[in-house]
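Incident log, support desk, overnight shift.

02:14 A customer reports that sequence design results differ from what the structure should imply. Their input is reproduced verbatim below. On-call engineer (initials T.W.) acknowledged and began investigating.
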């Protein structure tokens, strides 16, 4: 700041000295000093205002002035046949020479945003919509849920199936093991169904990286080359891809996020299907496959019971809910459950006589 003040003072002193030395006005030296000082202060004031202006505004104004001057010179040259000695013609020439650069300055500074780097890049950018690629791996194809997700429209973009993934699917489908063979054929059927869906673009990519041996590493390289995301159910591939800076869409994460939220203290009705690992535990399953471990329910297998949730455990493999049975008359029984049991009891037992 101090350096700028010194620089301005030096500039003013130079302008005043030049005005004193040259004397542009044929008058006393004081008049020339005042003229030089006034011009220097005006220039400094303009410079102070220009410091707050954007660079694009300055460039736009300069370009506008240049274009205005060029147009003004062209118009004046086209009017060269007029009588330049006529005061009216001289005034019109002067007006054109001043007006057009001024208009160019105003219009150029107001529309200077087109000179911003982002706008300039957009002029040379392809106007077609950018494709979003979703690279499918073997696990998500065999899993099968990708078909329903694509059909509902929640997965957009172009689905990419690399050739090496198809080869891996074919190898699984040709396996001597019956289970693997069925899984491989199911994966091929899933791909066939997706290709038949209306509005879904599926391409088989020939991209391959011969120097890369592992299929997971090839998938990561394909996604990086296309600038897309990997769609998988493989937990290890998910972690490795994230470490390599490649975005992943994990179907298991989507399924976990869609499960209903259960909080400790809530009540639910479950069907006890089998005994648990610990003593006197029963196991039930919700509609979405969530395991529910119920204490003191080993002797309730094959029955539908009301339970209260005691805790919820979220793991990488999924979610587990722990609960305990709701005994009749328990404080955990909600209004609906308590009312239902109360009505049943009232239907079985006669009401006591009213006391006086």
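02:41 Re-run completed on a clean worker. Output:
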């Amino acid at each position: 700041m101090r350096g700028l003040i010194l620089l301005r003072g030096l500039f003013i002193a130079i302008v005043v000295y030049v005005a004193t030395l040259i004397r542009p006005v044929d008058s006393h030296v004081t008049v020339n000093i005042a003229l030089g000082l006034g011009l220097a202060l005006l220039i400094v004031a303009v410079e102070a205002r220009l410091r707050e202006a954007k660079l694009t505004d300055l460039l736009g104004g300069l370009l506008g002035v240049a274009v205005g001057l060029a147009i003004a010179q062209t118009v004046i040259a086209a009017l060269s046949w007029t009588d330049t000695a006529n005061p009216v013609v001289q005034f019109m020439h002067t007006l054109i020479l001043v007006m057009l650069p001024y208009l160019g300055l105003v219009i150029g500074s107001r529309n200077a945003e087109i000179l911003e780097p982002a706008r300039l890049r957009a002029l040379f950018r392809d106007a077609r919509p950018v494709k979003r690629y979703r690279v499918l791996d073997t696990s998500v194809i065999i899993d099968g849920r990708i078909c329903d997700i694509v059909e509902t429209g929640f997965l957009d973009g172009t689905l990419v199936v690399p050739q090496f993934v198809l080869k891996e699917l074919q190898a699984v489908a040709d396996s001597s093991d019956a289970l693997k063979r069925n899984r491989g054929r199911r994966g091929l059927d899933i791909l066939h169904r997706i290709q038949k869906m209306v509005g879904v673009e599926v391409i088989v990519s020939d991209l391959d990286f011969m120097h890369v041996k592992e299929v997971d590493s090839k998938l990561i390289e394909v996604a990086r080359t296309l600038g897309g995301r990997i769609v998988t159910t493989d937990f290890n591939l998910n972690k490795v891809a994230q470490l390599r800076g490649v975005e992943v869409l994990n179907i298991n994460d989507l399924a976990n996020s869609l499960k209903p939220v259960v909080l400790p203290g809530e009540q639910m009705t479950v069907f006890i299907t089998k005994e648990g690992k610990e003593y006197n535990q029963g196991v039930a399953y919700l509609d979405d496959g969530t395991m529910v471990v119920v204490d003191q329910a080993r002797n309730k297998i094959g029955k539908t019971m009301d339970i209260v949730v005691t805790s919820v455990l979220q793991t990488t493999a999924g979610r587990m809910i722990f609960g305990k049975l709701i005994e009749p008359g328990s404080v955990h029984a909600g209004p609906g459950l308590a009312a239902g049991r109360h009505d049943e009891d009232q239907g079985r037992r006669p009401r006591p006589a009213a006391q006086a």
